[in-house]
Amino acid sequence: MNEAGGRFPRSKRASARRHGLAALAAAALVLAGGARAAGPAIALTFDDLPAHGPLPAGETRAGIAEAIARAARAAGSPPLYGFVNGVQTEREPGSAAALAAWRAAGDPLGNHGWSHLGLSKIDPATFERELTRNAPLLADQRARWFRFPFLDEGADPARRDAARAILARHGYRIAAVTMSFGDYGWNEPYARCLARGDQAAIAGLERSFLAAARSALAQSRAAAQARYGRDIPYVLLMHAGAFDARMLPRLLDQYRRAGVRFTTLAAAERDPAYASDRDPRRPFDADALQHHLPSPEIAPEDAEYAGAGLASLCQ
Ligand SMILES: [Zn+2]
User: Fold this and answer.
1) Rounded CA Rg of the chain
2) Which of 6, 49, 133, 259 is geometrically suited to a Cys-Cys bond with 114, CB 3.0 to 4.6 A?
C-alpha cells in the first residue's frame, strides 16, 4: 500500500461519502498533503556564525543572518540552530550583530568552539576552554548543542572519549551531521564573480549548488537505507555565508518539491540513529550513519565548477 493510502483510514473514507462533495474535496487535499509529506525530514543547521566566508560589497553579516531566517520561515522550517565561533566577534568587529539578528528571528545558537580548532589538534584542556569561552554567547539557551569544528571528533579514542566526557559534564548534546554537500565551497568564488559582475559564472554557481544538494540528498537517503533500512530524519550541515543566504529560498523549494519536510535538530536526534550523539555519556557509535557518509559529490554536468573549478573560477 502506498503512503497516502496508508494514512487515510477507512472510517474517513466512509465519512467523506456521507458528507458529500465538499468532504470529498477535503479528503483529496488530505491525500495530496500526505503524499507530499512522504519524503524525509531534514533539520537545517548553519555553522560558523557570525561570519563565514567573504562578505560581498554592500552586504552585512546581520543581513545574511536575516535572509537565512526569512527563507527558513517562508519554507515552513521550525527554529534552526546556528553554531557560533565567538572569535569572529573579535576578528570582524560588528559581526556580533548577526548573532543578535539570529536570536531576534527566534532561532537558537549552539556551540562550535571559540576559535574553530579541530579536536585532533588540541588537548582536552584546550577543548574545554574552547567550549566554555563560547558559552556566554549562548547563555540564554535552555538546550546546549555542540558541533565539532571540521566535524573532527578526534582520531584517537582516548582524546575522543575525553572530549565526550567534557561535553557531558557541561550538559551538551552533540549535533551530528547526516547530510552535507560542501556548501561552503561556493562562497568564495561567488564573492569573486560578484565583484567582477560575471553573471554567467554566477548562474553556473547557482546550478551546481542545487545539483550538489540533490546529489547529497540521494546519497544520504541511500546510506540510511543501507544502514537502517529506512529514512532517518537528516541533519543538514550548511554555513552562514553570503551565497548560502542567496540560494536558500531556491534550495528549500527544491527540497520541498522532493517531498522533504523540515524539523528541529532536537526532534531529528530523538531518532535512535542519533542515540550516541544525543547523550555523550553513551559510548561513541562508530557505526552511526554520520561516520559513514560518502564525501559530497558534484553532478558530472557541473564538473567544471567542482573542486579545483570552484577554486579557480573568476580568479
Ligand atoms: Zn565550522
Assistant:
1) 21
2) 133
CB–CB of 207/303 below 8 Å?
no
Task: Assess whether 17 and 141 both reside in one domain.
Answer: no
Ligand 1 centroid – CA 265 distance (Å): 17
* pLDDT tens digits, one per residue of 205-218: 999 999 999 999 99
Q: Within this chain, do residues 12 and 139 fall inside the same structural domain, yes or no?
A: no
* Tens of pLDDT, residues 76-130: 999 999 999 999 999 999 999 999 999 999 999 999 999 999 999 999 999 999 9
Domain count, the chain: 2
Quick one: 200 and 258 in the same domain? yes
Query: What is the band of 31 on the pLDDT scale with cuts at 50, 70, 90?
Result: very low
Pair 265, 172: CB distance under 8 Å: no
Instruction: Look up the CATH number of the domain holding residue 211.
Output: 3.20.20.370
3-state secondary structure of 237: strand
Q: Give the range of the structural domain holding residue 17, as residue numbers without chain letter.
A: 3-33
Nearest to 224 by CA among 295, 179, 289, 294: 289
196 and 82 part of one domain: yes
Other CB atoms closer than 10 Å to residue 224's CB: what's the count?
21
Whole-number Å distance, alpha carbon 301 to ligand 1 midpoint, is 28
177 and 199: one domain?
yes
What length does the chain have? 315
pLDDT band at 292 (very low <50, low <70, confident <90, very high): confident
* Distance in Å, CA 24 to ligand 1 centroid: 50
Residues 25 and 85 grouped into a single domain: no
CA of 179 to the centre of ligand 1 (A): 15
- Grid cell in block for residue 43: 533539520
Across the strands, what pairs with 144?
172
Q: Are residues 54 and 27 in the same domain?
A: no
Find the 28 Cα to ligand 1 centroid distance in Å.
44
Q: Are residues 18 and 166 in the same domain?
A: no
